[in-house]
Specification:
With about 525 residues, this protein is of the alpha/beta class. Helices cover about 35% and strands about 20% of the residues. The protein has 15 helices and 19 strands. The chain has helices at about 10-20, 60-70, 75-80, 105-115, 120-145, 150-160, 170-175, 185-190, 195-205, 220-230, 235-250, 345-355, 410-425, 440-450, 490-520; strands at about 5, 25-30, 40-45, 50, 80-85, 90, 95-100, 230-235, 255, 260-265, 270-275, 280-285, 285-290, 320-330, 340, 370, 385-395, 435-440, 480. The protein has a 7-stranded mixed β-sheet. Strands 9-2-1-13-19 form a 5-stranded parallel β-sheet, with helices on one face. The chain has a 3-stranded antiparallel β-sheet with strand order 10-11-12, with no helix packed on it. Helix 1 (about 10-20) runs parallel beside helix 15, helix 4 (about 105-115) crosses helix 5 and helix 8 (about 185-190) runs antiparallel to helix 9.
Length: about 525
């Protein structure tokens, strides 16, 4: 049995802690804040409750596996889990409405044909089929295997696995048309219709990525959603975080909240524990880091030099999310769709603003996601309900493309623009607002430690590896990396996967160390 310290209590860190504890290790979780869950946070006021991070879940199989492997109660026995159907309503400036069913290829095709004309559904589903090719070729190295440090480990994922649609005409037969390199190129070449282009490019924005830079292989994102569906946890995603923490405690994981880790201890060239900000030292046989670990490394060690800079030119400026939490006077109207996406009238203007338009351009022409869950647990009753509006915005800071979200009046003016954009298609919403809470990337940075409050996208193959997260082994032996800042990247499913990968790595390394000790004896 090994002593293991886990730094941070985000979802990936909790998943790793539960798996390590069930393997027989003595696990201590140190979290600088007073709570758990990381980005799966909650805001409560006057009997209302809101998710402050993700509001929906894809790939619930990740957490089903976690609960099966760590205890007797399954995921469904631990939380209320239900499919969101219809999956989403898309609204466009010209009045077009597209209601897409959950996990139904045929239903999606028919809905797109009805909105954009015959052939639209076929074009979309053919592209999703190519997304399946990306999934099949990258699933194992991207999701099911740890990613080691160095260029060699990334080489297999540096090339884009996307196989484009066959080019038509003589140029296609002669091979004179190059494959699309970005998601935006896939959209313009293979989908063509502006509405379909907007549907595809929204996936990149949702994950904090510019579609003009996201690799073509990002078509795997709509494939995953359309194939595995969209799910909601009763009570919000915070309920899932609570259930994972409860599972950790069932397995005797110790939690130290309000315990900020100042540095990882170096014990003769190996991670030997952590030192807290108050000077307390916790010795350990291994350390699992669920936060950006660079500032915590001992002298002489640096993060993987081959890991990309998330603010670098290849991936574009970092993006976060501005979220407007609305307490509403009035029940959720019958037939209201759980998720609605109000598309920007001018996508190019929106992307230009995100790429450095400055504070005056922020939220000027946004694409807005509106979540209206049918969940009485989120409101105090009495005919009241909630809504969460969110838009992609530049991350917080003073670097290239960032915005100082603490500037007086900026958050409020941005929220006003977001409400106005939604009001254009739902005029009654603004009239029913009892109060609102505006949350910016500065709040995300303060609460989760994510630099600039930037979104952490799932790892994507292609673009020379620029969209891969750092690997799961740190530069110091005995140090492991988990969570959205590590392979396989951000998002609830991917964070949960990272926990499984790290637990496997720790077990493998412990077993190898025991074998070496036995051989010497």
């Amino acid at each position: 049995m090994a002593r293991i310290v886990v730094i941070g209590a985000g979802m990936g860190a909790l998943a790793a802690a539960a798996r390590l504890a069930v393997a027989g290790h003595r696990v201590t979780v140190c979290e600088r804040s007073g709570t758990h869950g990381g980005s799966a946070g909650v805001f409560r006021r006057d009997g209302f409750a809101f998710d402050t991070g993700p509001g929906l879940l894809n790939l619930p199989a990740v957490y089903r596996d976690l609960f099966i492997k760590t205890g007797k109660k399954t995921l469904e026995q631990s939380v209320g889990l239900r499919e969101v159907d219809p999956a989403v309503l898309h609204l466009f400036a010209d009045g077009t409405r597209v209601l897409l069913p959950n996990a139904s290829r045929g239903g999606v095709g028919r809905a797109l044909d009805g909105a954009f004309g015959a052939g639209a559904g076929e074009a979309w589903n053919e592209m999703v089929d190519r997304g399946r090719g990306v999934w099949e070729s990258t699933r194992r190295p991207l999701l099911e295997e740890p990613l080691g440090p160095g260029a060699q480990a990334r080489e297999a994922l540096a090339r884009d696995p996307y196989m484009p649609a066959p080019a038509r005409g003589l140029a296609g037969r002669l091979g004179l048309v190059r494959a699309p390199r970005t998601l935006a190129e896939v959209a313009s070449r293979e989908l063509r219709r502006p509405g379909l282009v907007a549907l595809l490019e929204e996936y990149a924005l949702r994950y904090g990525t510019d579609p003009r830079r996201a690799p073509a292989g990002a078509v795997v994102l709509p494939y995953m959603e359309q194939t595995f569906g969209t799910w909601y946890v009763d009570g919000g995603m915070r309920t899932l975080a609570d259930a994972v923490r409860a599972r950790c405690e069932e397995r005797s994981v110790e939690f130290r909240l309000g315990a900020e880790v100042a540095r990882v201890l170096d014990g003769g060239g190996r991670a030997a524990g952590v030192e807290l900000a108050d000077g307390t030292r916790l010795e350990a046989d291994a350390v699992v880091c669920g936060v950006p670990c660079g500032p915590l490394l001992p002298d002489g060690y640096a993060p993987d030099g081959d890991a990309p800079d998330p603010a670098g030119d290849a991936t574009g400026p970092r993006l976060g999310r501005l979220t407007v939490l609305l307490a509403l006077d009035g029940a959720r109207p019958p037939g209201t769709v759980h998720r609605t996406i109000v598309h920007a009238a001018d996508r190019e203007a929106e992307l230009a603003a995100l790429e450095g338009g400055g504070p005056d351009a922020v939220c000027e022409r946004p694409t807005v996601t509106v979540l209206r869950p049918d969940d009485p647990a989120l409101s105090p009753g009495g005919g009241r309900s909630t809504a969460v509006l969110s838009v992609a915005v530049p991350a917080h800071g003073t670097t290239r493309g960032a915005v100082d979200w603490t500037a007086d009046g900026l958050a409020g003016s941005c929220a006003d623009r977001v409400l106005a954009a939604v009001g254009a298609v739902d005029p009654e919403l603004a009239d029913r607002v009892l109060w609102r809470e505006v949350r910016t990337p500065a709040d995300t940075e303060r609460e989760t430690g994510a630099p600039g409050g930037a979104l952490r996208a799932p790892s994507l193959a292609g673009a020379g590896g620029a969209f891969l997260a750092p690997g799961n082994t740190g530069p110091l032996p005995g140090l492991y990396l988990v969570g959205g800042a590590a392979h396989p990247g951000g998002g609830l499913p991917h964070s949960g996967m990272s926990g499984a990968l790290v637990a496997e790595l720790v077990g493998r390394d412990r077993q190898a160390a025991a074998g070496r000790t036995g051989a010497r004896q």
